[in-house]
Glycine C-acetyltransferase (Alkalibacillus filiformis), 396 residues
Amino acid sequence: MPSETLDRFLNENLQELKDQGLYNEIDPVEGANGPEITINGQKLINLSSNNYLGLATDERLKEVAQQAVDSHGVGAGAVRTINGTLDLHVKLEEKIAEFKGTESAIAYQSGFNCNMAAISAVMDKNDAILSDSLNHASIIDGCRLSKAKIIPYGHNDMEDLRQKAKEATESGQYNKVMVITDGVFSMDGDVAKLPEIVEIAEEFDLITYVDDAHGSGVLGKGAGTVKHFGLQDKIDFQMGTLSKAIGVVGGYVAGKQELVDWLKVRSRPFLFSTSLSPADVTASTKAIDILMESTELYDKMWENGNYLKEGLKGLGFNIGESETPITPCVIGDEKTTQQFSKRLNEEGVYAKAIVFPTVPRGTGRVRNMPTAAHTKEMLDNAIKIYEKVGKEMGVI
Ligand SMILES: Cc1ncc(COP(=O)(O)O)c(C=O)c1O
């Protein structure tokens, strides 16, 4: 017999979320996640994906993925440490290390589980982690799992970080202290101050961990935020995903050989969860090859990003502090944000409302991500729709 306690819990809490405008309706996409998508039979300009370079639907990736299915099957068949390490995984990891400028790399099934895996493999209850207050949920959960003391510092606030690093190290309470940050903050598009972070880390002997889920493919000619600042030798963990600019699925850490050796024996999803499929691995390797060969997609993404940004800013939208093509339109109130996104949708633009808990309460926004695959015509149409809806709702 189903639990009445569970029923009560679910009904009360779901209703509360709906009343507060915080319940997220999921709209299945009918077909591929390209620059235009179809939802409920309606064609929409898609400004909500993380498919920064348009690689999720790239013919070259599709071709090699199909070949990998033919040669290696659809599944890896085991966890990495039994016999789920295929030659394709080794090739991918070598490619990631080359791309990131590190000695070695290790791949995981997702970016989320990569953070869960890697942080907790190195940090424990006798350690402390200094964590930017806008870090991604997977970083927060990875830190929690490690049982280390979590010490949040103000977003990109280097004075606060220095002060807290000093207190943590001088307290003598912790064996190891790590500083962890997103490279590019996904909901705001601003960039971590890595040169200052490295300086503070060197002063206080901190372990450095950069989650570059949104920086890879987007900064440093594609190689990421660490490369953008020329700090490849200074960051211990260059974490990234294969699911955003790379267009496929998976996560990784690039770093020193000993770090990767340790993660291979101590990070639990590597040991206890079946490895990435042959098609995913092969498509990801191909994507990195493409990025290393040419900046064509990268340049196009930046051109489109700047174009949309100027257009929305020119209309009077608050696009925050973005330094990358990620372009938020901050609306504020959650219900107005949801309504704004709904109206955009009705007019032909898919730009999802992002509200608490993904961003702090009262900072609801519509997050726009133009990709390399958008045409100028699509972006012009989107800007016109923003103008219409913005004026209608008194947002601009
Ligand atoms: C900063 C950051 N890290 C990690 C992840 C998780 O990556 P994945 O989607 O590959 O699991 C995300 C995804 O949104 C992210 O934004």
Remarks:
- The domain at 20-49+295-392 is CATH 3.90.1150.10 (Aspartate Aminotransferase, domain 1).
- Residues 86 and 366 are 41 Å apart (CA to CA).
- Residues 110-112, 115, 136, 138, 182, 186, 211, 213-214, 241, 243, 251 surround pyridoxal-5'-phosphate (CB under 6 Å).
